[in-house]
Predict the structure.
Amino acid sequence: MDKKSPQILNASSNLLGFSMIIITSLKITKTSHHTSLDEFAGISCILFACSCFFSFLSIRSKSTKYESRYESIADYLFLIALFCIILSVIIITTTIID
């Protein structure tokens, strides 16, 4: 199996920063009460942070069994967090269009 952990760690940390920017901009503009956007961005922040943690554990693991397990967990968490970001982008787009 090809190691995906370094790529997951890189992408998760970048998208974690993107999610933080979404939350910060919502708080600055005081538009977080009108949509559920901040909830989706907050969930994605937590999931991206956990994905970073498990991908790091996968990289540092000595056991191939744990390495594979941690990488799989990081991969699934990344996918769920990416789905939350997609929902956030859809909400932003529909808010701008309306």
User: Anything to note?
Assistant: The chain has a mean pLDDT of 88.
